[in-house]
């Protein structure tokens, strides 16, 4: 397979199913941001962290590839004329969302109760989690905007929302694991 096709040299690209759209199309922005998020999660996974977290992050990366494929498929191309699904892969579902919720609950059991907002930082690995969380929120905002133009699967929005929560709690867990300081945000008084 050749890596370059030259078909995008004039600023357009193909969605799954062959529809061509400009590279700035909201659908491209949505799954492009999911791809960026996936790269940041890979960066977190490459850090010196526990094996269970690395395994969880690998599953999340796989789910994000699936989510990207779902976003790359316009509604009119989801099924063939025969009625068969065009995208014949596992889809993000309630089980995917429940997996994230279970992981959040497990981590939260070991963490002190939050009493203040927390400033991002304290350790490079923790900062990578906060960057990933922010990119996840951007992917969510773009997907919400896309959903207002063309309906997308509800599971995509729920998964991105829950993943952002997971990344926040993971940052707190890694702060604890790495014996870093969790800096509380205490607003200055006027």
Automatic annotation (TrEMBL):
EC numbers, comma separated: 2.5.1.17
GO molecular function: ATP binding; corrinoid adenosyltransferase activity
A Gene Ontology BP annotation from the UniProt entry: cobalamin biosynthetic process
InterPro entries the UniProt entry points to: CblAdoTrfase-like, CblAdoTrfase-like_sf, PduO-typ
Known catalytic reactions: 2 cob(II)yrinate a,c diamide + reduced [electron-transfer flavoprotein] + 2 ATP = 2 adenosylcob(III)yrinate a,c-diamide + 2 triphosphate + oxidized [electron-transfer flavoprotein] + 3 H(+); 2 cob(II)alamin + reduced [electron-transfer flavoprotein] + 2 ATP = 2 adenosylcob(III)alamin + 2 triphosphate + oxidized [electron-transfer flavoprotein] + 3 H(+)
Keywords assigned: ATP-binding, Cobalamin biosynthesis, Nucleotide-binding, Transferase
Subunit record text: Homotrimer.
Family indicated by similarity: Belongs to the Cob(I)alamin adenosyltransferase family.
Name of this protein: Corrinoid adenosyltransferase
Source species of the chain: Tenacibaculum aiptasiae
């Amino acid at each position: 397979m050749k890596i370059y096709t030259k078909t995008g040299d004039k600023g357009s690209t193909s969605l799954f199913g062959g529809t061509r759209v400009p590279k700035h199309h909201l659908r491209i922005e949505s799954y492009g941001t999911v791809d960026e998020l996936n790269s940041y999660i890979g960066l977190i996974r490459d850090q010196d962290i526990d094996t269970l977290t690395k395994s969880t992050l690998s599953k999340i990366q796989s789910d994000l590839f699936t989510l990207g494929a779902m976003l790359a498929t316009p509604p009119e191309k989801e099924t063939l004329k025969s009625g068969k699904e065009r995208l014949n892969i596992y889809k993000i579902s309630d089980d995917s969302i429940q997996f994230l919720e279970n992981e959040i609950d497990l981590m939260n059991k070991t963490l002190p109760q939050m009493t203040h907002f927390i400033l991002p930082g304290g350790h490079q690995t923790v900062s990578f989690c906060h960057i990933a969380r922010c990119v996840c929120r951007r992917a969510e905002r773009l997907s919400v905007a896309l959903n207002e133009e063309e309906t997308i699967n509800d599971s995509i929005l729920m998964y991105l929302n829950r993943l952002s929560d997971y990344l926040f709690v993971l940052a707190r867990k890694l702060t604890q694991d790495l014996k870093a300081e969790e800096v509380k945000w205490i607003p200055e008084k006027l």
